[in-house]
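Quick one:
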Amino acid sequence: MMKRNAKICALIAFSISLITTLTAQEKIAITIYNQNLALVYEQRELSIPSGLNAISFPEVAAQIDPTSVQISVLNDPATCLIREQNYEYDLVNSDKIFNKFLEKEIAFSTKSSGEIKGILLSAGGGDFVLRNTDGSLLVLSKSDILATSFPSLPDGLKARPTLVWLAQNSGSVRRTVEVSYLTRGIQWHAEYVGVLDEKDANLKLNGWVSIDNQSGANYKDAKLKLVAGDVNLVDERRQPVFKGRTEALAMVADAPQFEEKSFFEYHLYTLQRPATLQENQIKQITFFPESKTQVQKEFVYEAQKDQRSVNVQVVFKNAKEAGLGMPLPEGKVRIYKSDSDGSQIFVGEDRISHTPKDEEIRLTIGKAFDIVGERQQLRDEALGRRAREQEFEIKLRNHKDDDVTVKVIERFYGDWEIRSASQQPVSKTAEKAEWQVRLPKNGETTLQFTVRLRW
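Output:
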């Protein structure tokens, strides 16, 4: 009876053969998010023999989330059922190989004694312990080893992370499967370059997409989609991002390479051609062709943030009639200006958040050298337990040879009211008041106001 059971077990074990799918990726698409996350979709043609077979699916991302894997058999799925899924990531290295060969024969090439064979008993520390054929023991120093010869790769070790499915096939051998999974280690961000004209009235703007692939896989001729917006992730753990080699594509494009559309509550950008993402590569792709838009240069003084400095801001509207008009993903904007000799000078940079069409964009690119602010509190009087009145004086000095206008911003808490002012604010919200203060060339202007606060 025991012999019969042993034969049956051997027959079952023999019938579950491991089929390695080394076929090329038939179709591949990758959707990349801003949050160090990507969704990989693959379609492959596989040969799955009849019966119960272990199907090996190599060349997946090293940072795959194995719990996110989905597999579907597209042709006659009722006759090919997936019974089990395994993610095997016990990857090859020398320590693991030595551990797998404990109590097995191994051959060393040494500096002192040529080739030495024996049964490996220990591979820890700085020595190897071998048992000779006569039962004696030999201790070899690792510093004496030139090379080690193994008869084969031990079972269970993989050169790359691999998905393995247990498939029960009762139909056609030729199968088309669809596989998708989430992986970390790949992300994208937008970057913008703007060039101001001589009068600071117009801005030439173009955008780039930078994709950083540290996922541990290559994606050849993939359909590339980018999602702008923050998806909610449970127990998110951000992975470190390392710099790889950079591949820059054409500097100028006649037409947008990405097609944009709203998708759920995000924006989706689809590249209109296949793209190959190599492992450890940063790829840059032009996002939209150069656009020209009108801008305003503003001087802004907000003493509650900086008592002395006046910020320089470039303001424009992301509108079609202004030369733009597409949703702009968050990213860094670098601003340059052409000098009289034609060379470009970097004048500052800022970041924009995800910006829908028809919204204003305000970039703080530096601090004005020739405009200085000074703020002083002249009076602070308590009006009972829940109110007080304060008086302020703001002096603005202009050392330029031209008249300028400075926007002054003051922020308040609670219920507030401007009781008096040397110049009335041009706008007020629940949290702040704004003044437009005119400064003569090489001159000074003083703004005084009194505010009553209640809480």
